[in-house]
C-alpha cells in the first residue's frame, strides 16, 4: 500500500492495483475510491494507522471496471497511423 497526498500517486497506485491511503479531504480521482483501491483519511496519526490496519486485514478489491481505459490505446493509435500511412 501507499500513503500519499499526491493526486498523481493516487491514480498510479490504482493502475498498479496497489491500495492507497490519501491524506486529504477530497480527491480528483473519485473513481479510485469507488473501485475500492483508494481511501481518504484524515491527517491524523491514529486515523492513518487505523486505515493501514484495515488495508492489511482485508483482501484487495476485485477489479470490476477500467475507468481509465485498458492500457492499450498507444498500440491501437500506432496501428491506425501505420494503416493510414501504408
Quick structural summary:
The protein has 86 residues and is mostly helical. The chain has helices at residues 7-15, 30-34, 45-57, 73-85; strands at 2-4, 20-22, 38-40. Helices cover 47% and strands 10% of the residues.
Topology:
Elements: E1 2-4, H1 7-15, E2 20-22, H2 30-34, E3 38-40, H3 45-57, H4 73-85
Characterization of this structure:
- With about 90 residues, this protein is mainly alpha-helical.
- The chain is built from four helices and three strands; from the N terminus they run E-H-E-H-E-H-H.
- The protein has a three-stranded parallel beta sheet with strand order 1-2-3, sandwiched between helices.
- Helix 2 (about 30-35) links the parallel strand 2 and strand 3.
- The chain is elongated.
- About 15% of the residues are buried.
